[in-house]
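User: Teach me something about this protein's shape.
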Amino acid sequence: MFIQARKPLILCPTIFANEQNYQSLIMKNLFTTLFLLCTLFIQVSANNPIRKVPYPQQEHTIYLNPAPLIVPCTLKQSDFLQFNLSMDKNFEDEHSILSKPVPWCVFNPHQILNSGVWYWRFRSVNKSGEEMPWSQTYSFTVTDDTPKFATPPFSTFFKNIPEEYSRIYCFLKDNLEEARKKVRSHPEFEAMIDDGRNALSMNYANDTKPYSRITRMAEDCDNLNTAYQMLQRDLYADKMVKNVRCLLSAEPDPKVIANDFNAGELVYTLACTYENCFDRFTPKEQKQIETIIMNTLSQYYTSRILGREENMFFDEHFWQFSFRHFLQGALVLYDKYPLAKEYLEYSYELWTSRAPASGFNRDGSWHNGANYFSANAVSLAYVATLFSYLTGTDFLQHPWYKNAGLGLVYCWQPGALSSGFGDGHEKTNSKPLRIRSAFADFLARNTGDIYATWYSSVNDRYKTESETRLYRMASGKQRPVQTQLPTDTPKAVWFKDCGEMIANTDLNNLKENISLSFHSSPFGSGNHTHSNQNAFNLHYGGEAVYHAVGHYMKFDDPHNLLSYRNTRAHNSLLVDGIGQPFTQRANGYIVRMFNGEHISYALGDASNAYCGISEINYWKQAFAENKLEQSPENGFGETPLKKYRRHIFLLHPNTVVIYDELEAEKAVHWDWLLHSPTRFNIDETAAILTTENKERHFKSVARLFSEQKCNITQTDQYAAPPNQKNAERGEDFTNPWSLTASFGPSKANRILTIIQIEADGKQAVEIVRNDKQLQCGDWTIEAELNTKRPASLYILNTKNKATFSFGRKKTMINGQSYQCQEKDASVIYDTMDGAWKTEEMSDQKIQSMGKW
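Assistant: First, the predicted structure itself:
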């Protein structure tokens, strides 16, 4: 519907109408390319919900002040939209804001909004200036505690773009000459020379289809450009020109350009070479380069980007690479082509409204999974640097960037598995991923963030990351050194917007650190995230104790559908064998969290996550193409679940406690799941589960408690095994072990789990049960397992008196009676911020991204 409604597609063949030598070339490939682009558009859109309801409205708690105004593209009735924003519901106040008509569907006020109720509306305007009636009036509330981050208007950005080249790396200009004088003593000089030499050795002259080599050519362009900027030697520039001439000698390949990654790489390679080597090309070649850049940019902007990216839930490919590359192309040609200038403004407004992390994430962690942060790191660093330089405003003061150091440290610790909740969660690294190290180095140089500095100080792997090397060599930014984390580093961090809590025992002793990660996310299951609300992972010394299973090899093969992103692959729960569907609707929330010195706690609510089957066309087609069904046998379908709330604790130094509250409208089987790289030793009578890592010399003992008996089984087989022919990353195909403790059938259940981790031959203490009271070493635990009584949980450390209580109106805190202010509140008594204190928390209000 959206494609049919878009008219600006006609711009593609007419923008260059005066260039007769290239008109036939454009027309020959235009319709094929547009067909492929539209096909890809439909496929990508099918996997990404697009907003249908304007945002924000009164039911939303806004994430940032100012909040962007977003209008669904289906409500845009003509060429432009005009926005009206005011604290006067009649829009008659002298301070009311009336935007100019713009072709996109978002408006950023670019100023801090006063606290109070704001009203807004929009109307469509055609190219002749004819104005359609205003929409209904919407309202939202700005509160004093809303985080503030305002960016300058586009006019500020625009007036500071340098007239001369280079523009792509204009932010390096002030220090570049000084950096060149010292280049040979720079620690990355030899690596730069080696990468440049490898790029010089590549020969594309004999390729009959040079466009098919664009990914490698773009990498070469980066390395050649870095060496050229630092050494100013002609051989690097000449090689860049020679590579581009290989492209110019062939007709643009529609299939390559239809791939958004390849299209971006093409635009960047051409734009970077064009602005640095402009005089080395003939006028004919210059025009040919301009034509290819603008034709590609026009096709994507008018048929796939405009109206969609403002409203899309999260288009991961676009934000990873395409946004940056298309921005760079527009930056180079904005003063020669009106569409390039328009796209430049669009990019600025889009980023300041929906970036750096979807616009609905201030955490510093990555909602699309820790592994896929790496694909976004260069764009996150580059765009913030460019926009900061050209506006004079520090874009790294955005809340997401200010928390990014913590996100790096907690979500993927050095020498460890990642926190483990998205595609690629199974990857291991003896060091931080190279690009993560590079991004941490970038933050350290620009902000001095202590966590980012420590993360990149534990090794110097960023020195081999070539795409960000030019910035490190030429920016003049010095990096601090931080070999130890500060003494007040939190034991646990709550990434509230993303829906994760990660707790550690000792980040300064990674070889013996116990790390507990817990996930219940409002982003649901989509893109590179999995169906794993209320799932946890547990690591010792970076190795899996209990961790999700499977391999990321193909996005939609049977293994992925049934044994990787499927709920059954995670340490969560199945209801009658059914898990959570692949849809953003299948979301969860962490509604409470405490960060104590002795008790780390979170409460996740996944009651809405078991919501049937996926309605997303992409997933429906994937099942059909693999001759599979979204059936109960495959873990999909309707369930009568009413409640799934999981309380989870890391009781320092080595005990994990989980308390599950489960309710359904009718009797169901409750399948409690646990996954281990090693076989479980099962004592079914006592419900004790033991695993041992003999190589790393640690053992885990888990014990389940419930008033209902359970049947415990384990298997080392997948529902659909990975296709080892698709192995590309040195995967370890040793099958893990998956355990199911099946309770019921019953309409309600409570399950208490106590997990102890011991290393170097130490034995887990025996858990002594005395009626409702359990003694586990220094910890006394009382849990209400009778479903006919209100849920409650009490935990006491008999030595230091650290206490947790849930569901009790009165509780004993350090020998004194404490009266809860709220029903069913959680209460903690522990050392927090350096002092013993008591805190109480009920469910926190969930930020709303609005209906999609």
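Now, about its shape. The longest helix spans residues 20-46. The domain at 69-142 is CATH 2.60.40.10 (Immunoglobulin-like). If you'd like, I can walk through any region in more detail.
User: That's plenty for now, thanks!
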